[in-house]
């Protein structure tokens, strides 16, 4: 298989062969979402949604940059930024044209650094940092080709896409030949599906009514607004107090009626036996899925829960650390819904592996989103899956929350409960310069003023 994407993915403005990456600039960007309890759940009661953000700058002279980020929830973002900084020597000086033609070369180099790999391997802070850098390369490559990333991927030669996947540790479940067959078969009818995507968008569900810190009045108002906006599924956070969860589920079900899907999300709160007992207790409200019922690493625990709570589906993935754990969840029949995350694993390359694994096992992918910019990213992965891999949106929805999109140059657009297909080149990852200046921590305008206004302790 050739490492080159071939003419079908090469745009007229690919960087000159001599152009190099000359800077990897990083930023610690934080938003004070804890003050309105946006994002609050049973395990994370006061998140400040944050991005360890980077910009790849080149000397190509075309004005194009690669933007990427890891998502965190506040403190610790400085650790994530430091991890991205540690990867800088692998990126500086690299040929821009070679990176855009074969992002997999950089992915393998970053994952293969033996001393940094020791901190994983392929998990945790370092792996998320790798994902941020790799995603920035894909952003740059799609911009250079003049296409949104979903289309860049959908137009790519299947053999080249297979060359971007690391099959180490997953070949017992998915071989390169099987992946090529899936992608080749997925091209049939591609043009018609692309037309449908552009006309109708991709189905979404919303978590916006369901944050654990919201009052019943706010839950009801936002749930009813979701219906008015065309959503056919909402999600509620659960897991802190059973009586409270029963009351909130009853409130939500009364607000949306019996025909709207209502998922619930425990954010890893429970032991296996608690998850079974708690989910059964919420059964009267007809939950569509129980999300993250226990530790994301407990493959057999998820399998036990799934067997015990059916017909309620089991969903997980936003904290699954790599393709290897996803492989095991699928092999064990432990999940009904796979929830990949654009920034948790090693970037687009590894998410291609995860999409292919899900297709191989026939399990629908409903990505985790929300956060800072995750909606912007995952829409591209699901749209590629629909257009050029599985060819279906049946039982597939992308999570949507309604905050922080205004900080991006190409924010998501929701219409009648569907994500509109992005048309701008790239991965939709680029933040507005004024947002970076305002919310960089601790010296951005917002945080500098906020810290200055904090009451000072008077020495005894």
TrEMBL record:
Pfam families hit by this protein: MR_MLE_C (PF13378), MR_MLE_N (PF02746)
Enzymatic reactions: L-fuconate = 2-dehydro-3-deoxy-L-fuconate + H2O
SUPFAM superfamilies xrefs: Enolase C-terminal domain-like (SSF51604), Enolase N-terminal domain-like (SSF54826)
Keywords of the record: Lyase, Magnesium, Metal-binding
Top-level taxon: Bacteria
Cofactor list: Mg(2+)
E.C. numbers: 4.2.1.68
InterPro entries: Enolase-like_C_sf, Enolase-like_N, Enolase_C-like, L-fuconate_dehydratase, Mandelate_racemase_C, Mandelate_racemase_N_dom, RHMD-like
Domain Mandelate racemase/muconate lactonizing enzyme C-terminal: 216-312
Listed name of the protein: L-fuconate dehydratase
Organism, as annotated: Streptacidiphilus cavernicola
């Amino acid at each position: 298989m050739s490492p080159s994407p071939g003419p079908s993915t090469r745009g007229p403005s690919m960087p000159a062969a001599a152009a190099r990456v000359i800077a990897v600039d990083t930023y610690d960007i934080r938003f004070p979402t804890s003050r309105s309890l946006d994002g609050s759940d049973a395990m994370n009661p006061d998140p400040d949604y944050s991005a360890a953000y980077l910009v790849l700058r080149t000397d190509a002279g075309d004005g194009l940059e690669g933007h990427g980020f890891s998502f965190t929830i506040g403190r610790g973002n400085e650790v994530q930024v430091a991890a991205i900084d540690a990867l800088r020597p692998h990126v500086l000086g690299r040929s821009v044209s070679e990176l855009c033609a074969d992002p997999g070369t950089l992915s393998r180099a970053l994952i293969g650094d033996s001393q940094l790999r020791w901190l994983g391997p392929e998990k945790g802070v370092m792996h998320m940092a790798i994902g941020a850098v790799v995603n920035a390369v894909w952003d740059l490559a799609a911009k250079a080709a003049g296409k949104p990333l979903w289309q860049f991927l959908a137009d790519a030669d299947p053999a080249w896409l297979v060359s971007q996947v690391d099959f180490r540790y997953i070949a017992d479940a998915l071989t390169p030949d099987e992946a090529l067959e899936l992608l080749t078969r997925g091209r049939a009818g591609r043009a018609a599906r692309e037309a449908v995507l552009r006309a109708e968008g991709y189905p979404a569900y919303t978590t916006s009514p369901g944050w654990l810190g919201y009052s019943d009045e706010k839950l009801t108002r936002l749930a009813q607004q979701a219906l008015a906006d065309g959503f056919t599924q909402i999600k509620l956070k659960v897991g802190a107090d059973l009586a409270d969860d029963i009351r909130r589920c009853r409130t939500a079900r009364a607000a949306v009626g019996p025909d709207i899907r209502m998922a619930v999300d425990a954010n890893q709160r429970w032991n296996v036996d608690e998850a079974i007992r708690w989910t059964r207790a919420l059964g009267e409200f007809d939950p569509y899925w129980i999300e993250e019922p226990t530790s994301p690493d407990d493959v057999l625990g998820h399998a036990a829960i799934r067997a015990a709570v059916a017909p309620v589906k089991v969903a997980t993935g936003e904290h699954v650390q790599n393709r290897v754990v996803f492989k095991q969840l699928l092999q064990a029949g432990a999940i009904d819904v796979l929830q990949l995350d654009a920034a948790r694993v090693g970037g687009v390359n590894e998410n291609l592996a995860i999409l292919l694994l899900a297709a191989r096992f026939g399990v629908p992918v409903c990505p985790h989103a929300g956060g800072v910019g995750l909606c912007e990213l995952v829409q591209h992965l699901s749209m590629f899956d629909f257009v050029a891999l599985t060819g279906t949106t049946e039982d597939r929805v992308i999570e949507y929350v309604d905050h922080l999109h205004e900080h991006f140059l190409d924010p998501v657009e929701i219409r009648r409960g569907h994500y509109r297909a992005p048309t701008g080149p790239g991965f939709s990852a680029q933040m507005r310069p004024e947002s970076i200046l305002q919310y960089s921590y601790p010296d951005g305008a917002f945080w500098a003023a906020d810290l200055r206004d904090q009451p000072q302790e008077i020495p005894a």
